[in-house]
Amino acid sequence: MSTSKTLRFLRQPDDIIAAATLLKAGELIAFPTETVYGLGADARQGDAVASIYATKGRPSFNPLIVHVADVERAKRYVTWTAQADVLAREFWPGPLTMVLPLCDSHGLSGLVTAGLPTLAVRVPAHPAARALLDAFDGPLAAPSANPSGKISPTRADHVLAGLDGKIAGVLDDGACGVGVESTIISLASDTPTLLRAGGLPAESIETALGTQLARPDAGDKITAPGMLTSHYAPGATVRLNATTAEAGEIHLGFGDIAGDLSLSPSGDLSEAAANLFDHLHRLDATGKPIAVAPIPASGLGAAINDRLTRAAAPRP
Ligand code: TXA
Ligand code: MG
To answer: Which of 132, 138, 124 is nearest to 93 (CA)?
Structure first.
């Protein structure tokens, strides 16, 4: 539902209750998670979920992640498995999303899954997200709180830059610590599959499961539509693996390559992930084409390179 002014809430009891009350009334509230800010709506209210799609301009086939307060609540919506149990014990709350078969009488709006027989579910770790989930006491559908295809938000101001006046409120609790979206794995078939690299390195999941994750080939049909090739796109063009900037470009550095602004002068991948979207927002504001220094591929580097590759992809 569109509103004339977006309220800014802080992580304090009265504000959390006010935000939860708006969610119960079917309004949209953006809130911080440890990965990025999410655009939350009651996952059981079809109208509320529909307004997420409308507000983001999101393609209707792209399903949403449902956020819940704990493992027990997750089990209300999906068919639980032994592998899910291992991963939930080890990594929840945290930046891991699991895709599992929807169970009967889940009570969620069909728009959440965009008609799929599976559900993406996660338990966020951020104290503001947890406080909101406790007060709301239900499942929150939440994509990243940015217009579809644009850079994801890691600060309340990023949210407002894209969605001010279009959502009821934003819960502002500063910058997100992880900075890239959750890692998504599917446990809906016999083979655990990595659908999206993210804030939890795939290697950590493989160690916990004692098995390799399958990785869909580029040519496969889209199973996590966030895998659309062009995504996270700034207004200007993006050029990757740039050790130096060309005339007119602004340079995003890493490690020994200082650039105009560095993701991490010390070459730390966690710091780089936390800075990624904020720095892209800042460089985008200059209007110049963006050159990006090479980033190693291992650990969190997989998620960072994935987002950068999409930011650099030809636009539809
Ligand atoms: O860190 C995150 O995951 C953030 C915060 C807000 O939690 N959320 C987020 O949501 O990144 P979103 O909507 O931007 O990305 C969700 C991804 C999409 O690529 C979507 O296609 C995929 O999850 N997805 C959702 N449900 C799915 C399902 N049932 N099967 C496969 N992929 C699914
Ligand atoms: Mg997104």
So the answer is: 124
Please name which ligand lies nearest the alpha carbon of 196.
1
The residues whose Cβ lies within 5 A of ligand 2, an ion, are 144
62 CA: nearest ligand 1 atom: 21
144 is written with which tokens?
């990243």
Q: Which pTM was predicted?
A: 0.91
Closest CA to 171 of 120, 121, 123, 135: 135
CA 259 to mean position of chain CA atoms: 27
User: Ligand 1, atom 6: nearest CA belongs to which residue?
Assistant: 38
pLDDT over threshold 90, residue 116: no
pLDDT at site 225: 47
Cβ of 154 below 6 Å from ligand 1: no
pLDDT tens for 200-256 read 999 999 999 999 999 976 555 545 545 556 667 788 899 999 999 999 999 999 999
Q: Is 66 in the pocket of ligand 1 (CB under 6 A)?
A: no
pLDDT of 135? 98
**φ and ψ of 114, to 5 deg:** 50, 35
Distance CA 124, CA 258 (A): 33
Residue with tokens 């998670």: 33
Mutate to test the pocket of ligand 1, among 65, 91, 193, 221 (most ligand atoms within 8 A of CB): 65
Atom of ligand 1 nearest to the CA of 184: 23
Rounded Cα distance between 257 and 293, Å, is 7
Tokens of 135: 């007060």
Cα 249 to averaged position of ligand 1 atoms, centre (Å) = 32
Pairing of strands 193-196, 238-239: unpaired
In 3-state terms the chain splits into helix, strand, coil percentages (rounded to 5) of: 30, 20, 50
Question: How far is Cα 188 from Cα 288, in angstroms, rounded to an integer?
Answer: 43
- Alpha-carbon gap, residue 25 to 1, rounded angstroms: 10
Which residue's CA is minimally distant from atom 32 of ligand 1? 224
Using the mean position of ligand 2's atoms as its centre, give its distance from the Cα of residue 202 in Å. 19
